[in-house]
Amino acid sequence: MRAYYRCLKPLVLWREAARPLDWATLFGRAAPVELEIGFGSGDYLVARAQQYPERNFVGVEMEWAGVQRALRRIAGAGLANVRVLLGDARPILWRAIAPQSLDRVYTLFPCPWPKKHHHKHRLLDPRQLQLINSRLRAGGECYLLTDHAEYFQWVLGNLTDTGFTAFARTVPPQVDTKYERKWLAQGQSRFYELTLTKTQHCPVPLLEDVAMETYRVRQFEPARFQPTDVNEDIHVAFKETRYDPARQIAMTRVVVVEDDLTQHFWIEIVRDGDGWRIRPAPGCGVVPTVGVQRALDAIRDACQ
Ligand SMILES: C[S@@+](CC[C@H](N)C(=O)[O-])C[C@H]1O[C@@H](n2cnc3c(N)ncnc32)[C@H](O)[C@@H]1O
């Protein structure tokens, strides 16, 4: 039988929330904040939050299945000092986390993406290291534990101008996560540990939302409606359009890819007096960006 998550309270809907996230409000107290990137099933996030009840913990994970498992664990342990965010840590750091608001950022056994053409997916490239530095307070720490020697060397090669001093060593198993257990079972008994201490500040400002311009057009012909994809620095792909003639509302499914942020959402075209209103459909949790504006522009153009 499938086990259900027990409580959604620790889940923070970062796309819908006021940004940057206000930790004191989210946790109901001011305390040092640690952020785990890619917590998997939340083994270590929960263990560490139990170990340090005087600290606040934020976990970011891309996979919903992992978030569900972590929510179960958090509820099972009765923890009030953990919040979890579903999504890619990179846009979250860019757009939702204020500069100098974290005390520690850590990632355990991140995917090493060994193939060269997959390196773009790797965590801790030079730009991300500067971003993490900017989100840490003075003296804050970024911590990496990995099984993968080549990825470890790659991260060590990325440290120039990131404002960190580094301490690297190999260590025995110590965090008891799924991936540590996996590599241990396959015979690996030493792992690569990197502790980065912030000694200089890298100023990387928060990426702010753009002011959205929604549109009202005079004409919309569902049968002829075919918005054009955008393939520039920003990619906008229109996937499908559904039209309900009874309610005079069309919904177009869009994917917008810009920098590290990918958004899937719907845009509605809805009868409004003698014209049609074009806007992101309510409830989609869209982060207002230049790419979302391009999607709205393309729909307006397709109506005219
Ligand atoms: C190899 S697993 C390790 C999981 C866990 N830390 C452990 O030690 O068992 C890597 C995890 O990082 C997550 N992940 C990868 N890239 C991420 C990103 N950019 N933001 C958030 N999570 C990410 C993956 O979904 C996956 O759950």
Describe the protein's topology.
Layout lengths: L22 H5 L5 E5 L5 H9 L4 E6 L2 H14 L4 E5 L2 H7 L6 E7 L17 H10 E11 L2 H8 L7 E8 L6 H8 L5 E8 L16 E3 L12 E2 L3 E10 L4 E10 L2 E12 L2 E6 L9 H14 L1
Parallel strand pairs: 1-2, 1-4, 2-3, 4-5
Antiparallel strand pairs: 5-7, 6-7, 8-13, 9-10, 10-11, 11-12, 12-13
Bound molecules: S-adenosylmethionine.
Question: Which architecture of the largest domain does the CATH hierarchy give at level 2?
Answer: 3-Layer(aba) Sandwich
**Fourth-tier CATH superfamily name of the largest domain:** Vaccinia Virus protein VP39
Question: Termini distance?
Answer: 53 Å
With strands numbered from the N-terminus, the spatial order across the biggest sheet is 3-2-1-4-5-7-6
Report on this structure.
By secondary structure, this protein is α/β, with parallel strands linked by helices. The protein has two domains: 23-198, 3-Layer(aba) Sandwich (Rossmann fold); 215-303, no CATH class. The protein has helices at residues 23-27, 43-51, 64-77, 89-95, 126-135, 149-156, 178-185, 290-303, and strands at 33-37, 56-61, 82-86, 102-108, 136-146, 164-171, 191-198, 215-217, 230-231, 235-244, 249-258, 261-272, 275-280. Strands 3-2-1-4-5-7-6 form a seven-stranded mixed sheet, with helices on both faces. The protein has a six-stranded antiparallel sheet with strand order 8-13-12-11-10-9, covered by helices on one side. The radius of gyration is 22 Å and the shape is elongated. The model has no long low-confidence stretch (mean pLDDT 96). It binds S-adenosylmethionine.
